Model the fold of this input.
Amino acid sequence: MITINNKNEEYKLVAVSDNKLNLNIDDKPSKVSFISEIKTFYLVIKKDSMSDLRQLKLGLAEFVKQAKGDTNIDFKSICDLIPEVKSEIIFNVICDVISFETHKFVTYKKEIKNVKFNFNIEASNEYKILLQTNEIKNKYVNYARDLQDFPPNIGTSEFYGEKLKNDAAKIEGLTVTVLKNKELKALDMNLVLAVNQGSSHEANVIVLEYNNNSGGEKVALVGKGICFDTGGYDLKPSVFIEGMKFDMTGAAIVMSIAMALAEAKAKINFVAVGLFTDNKIGEKAILPESIVRSKNGLTVEINNTDAEGRLVLADGITYAIREKGADKVYDIATLTGATAMALGESASGVFTEYDEMWNELHKTSLYTTERFWRLPVFDEHKEQVQQDSELADLINSCKKGPGGSTAAAFLTFFAEDKKFLHIDCSRVVRVDLKGQGYIVKTMFELFKK
Done:
């Protein structure tokens, strides 16, 4: 639990730049030392090649793991050592790390230790409103992490459909619709159904709607929710099968953003579309070189069944525009290995032809300290998506070129005349086999005004 000026706690955390106060302090950047005689933790932040905020994040995470009881956090000592960073951002980082590290995460172990101490930030009362915002924001960062972490034998499309329907229904003003195969067929969402063909579970497309800005634009948030991705008949080698339960992360993030915004009573109109299904192999699975007509009428040659994410997104984008009247579209997906190779765990790739959308996202990310990197969609990428198929309007996987850009180019054909931004977050959203709930904070801050 996080409080502000609540009471004097038993322990204290102070930020220092060296060991002048006590020679027993390890004064390497981001290190935390506990001096038992005075029940004080010392977190070192000093000029180094490692950024000040990274030192703070790493040090706070280590401190929470070492915590011995309820602790006061000397907020001023931290701000004094990082004067170039706004105190509001520092406060947010403290809340982010504590919430992240103390969360009771999904586990199936018999026994697990959770930190249950109180962390009292010694800051002025003006931060109480900011704390309330952080509580909602980080609640849904952790909610997204939980959605990510369910094992694939439990976290099926039907499981997520039922869970999200029940959880979202508890939030005032948020309406929930679940589209299964019968409804998807009636809506001509044939690309979603094509990906779903090999699964024993029906697709569940979760639609969350919220309207709290009369006369304002309607934003669409569309998320890829492949609950497990085998690659289909273009079967992944075993080295790439690990972690494929995380291929539903885009939908987990989108659902969590939507629920956070509704709970915060944000002045926004949105429709959030989470496209949950499997991509499995079997007698009914879609075959390579199949041609399927999308919801917007364009035919698609599926020459690679492992490029399935862009297929479900395509129908999801069309649904948001044509059925729900979206004026602007953002999609989030663990889409390509190419973007993962380019950026690794350092940042999410962003593809958009609209500078203002990128500028707004980038500015917000500086506030949340989450990282994004803009990558190109050139005309030749779009031309390749059209020209690489002899029989269909588009091809889902180009025969050459940068995979991240051609995947984004494919999606632009379904955005119609709407402003569109695509986020490819293939590796940044998890560390090893633990979900990180990445992107929720930035999108929440972008839209909560």
Q: What stands out?
A: The first strand starts at residue 2 and ends at 4. Residues 198 and 282 are 5 Å apart (CA to CA). The longest helix spans residues 128-149.
